[in-house]
């Protein structure tokens, strides 16, 4: 893992040892989701080429799509200017959201109300949870 | 502000009263930056149509571009599935990053090193800080 040292050193993990990770579909630009990574999740993601987050609710590594098959293949890993956010360019298989929608940002504030703007495309995978 | 109640109620602010806000250029899909909002920042953004964040370093409202002119006009405000992230579709004037680059995610992990993949396009505005 020592070869990842320049990357890990550039990331500013918070007091909980986590950094927010934004996942974007690499070719369409679609914003898929935001989750969190710790150092181990970053290292595993780089090693395997599949996105691994840290689940804050379960307090364990969360290999995205492990149970649902809706994996995210890493295309490029980017770090922001001050290192406290990472951007994951990914290739999403199936759907990113645990509700079965393609992405998690399906509620838009329009005309004074939260409006659902995306349909459920897949059976919500019960074991695939956010955060 | 009571008319914003359904939106504010849908957002899960963390223990510090903040929610991560991802800003994306509405027409190109370019990921611009991630910053944080509190309830007041959300309300001001919706009221004015210009993005207002919460600066964690300065502990005050941060009207993006107030000093630099590099404002972000709100196009659409979205909330994710479990309410703990918001997505701002914006129209960015000038550059989003305090380094003078168009967006903050200009460091990519390529061939075992962090590579700068975007050029400085504007004079870095000294008073425009991240977070």
Please report which band the strand proportion of chain A falls in: under 5%, 5-15%, 15-25%, 25-35%, 35-45% or over 45%. Answer: 25-35%
Structural class of chain A: mainly beta
- Unreliable sequence segments of chain A: none
CATH topology of chain A: Ubiquitin-like (UB roll)
Number of domains of chain A: 1
Using the alpha-carbon principal axes, give the shape of chain A. globular
The largest beta-sheet of chain A arranges its strands as 2-1-6-5
- The gyration radius over C-alpha positions of chain A equals 15 Å
Can you count the helices of chain A? Answer: 2
Q: Can you put this structure into words, describing what you see?
A:
2 copies of one chain form a homodimer. By secondary structure, chain A is mainly beta. Chain A has a single domain (2-95), classed as Ubiquitin-like (UB roll) (Roll), CATH 3.10.20.810. Chain A is 12% helix and 34% strand. Chain A contains 2 helices and 8 strands; from the N terminus they run H-E-E-H-E-E-E-E-E-E. Chain A has helices at 5-10, 39-48, and strands at 19-25, 31-37, 52-55, 60-63, 72-79, 86-92, 107-110, 113-116. In chain A, the strands form 3 sheets. In chain A, strands 2-1-6-5 form a 4-stranded mixed beta sheet, covered by helices on one side. A two-stranded antiparallel ribbon of chain A has the order 3-4. In chain A, a hairpin with a 5-residue loop joins strand 1 and strand 2. The longest helix of chain A has 10 residues, at 39-48. Chain A is globular, with a radius of gyration of 15 Å. Chain A starts with a helix and ends in a 15-residue tail after the last strand. The model of chain A has no long low-confidence stretch (mean pLDDT 94). Strand 7 (107-110) of chain A pairs antiparallel with strand 5 of chain B.
């Amino acid at each position: 893992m020592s070869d990842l040292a320049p990357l890990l050193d550039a990331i500013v993990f918070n007091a909980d040892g986590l950094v927010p990770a934004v996942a974007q579909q690499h070719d369409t630009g679609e914003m898929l989701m935001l989750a969190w990574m710790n150092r181990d999740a970053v290292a595993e993601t780089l090693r395997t080429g599949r996105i691994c987050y840290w689940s804050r609710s379960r307090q364990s590594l969360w290999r995205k799509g492990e149970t649902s098959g809706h994996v995210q293949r890493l295309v490029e890993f980017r770090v922001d200017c001050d290192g406290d956010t990472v951007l994951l360019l990914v290739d999403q298989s199936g759907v990113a959201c645990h509700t079965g929608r393609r992405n998690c940002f399906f509620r838009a504030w329009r005309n004074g109300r939260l409006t659902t703007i995306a349909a459920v495309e897949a059976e919500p995978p019960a074991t695939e949870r956010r955060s």
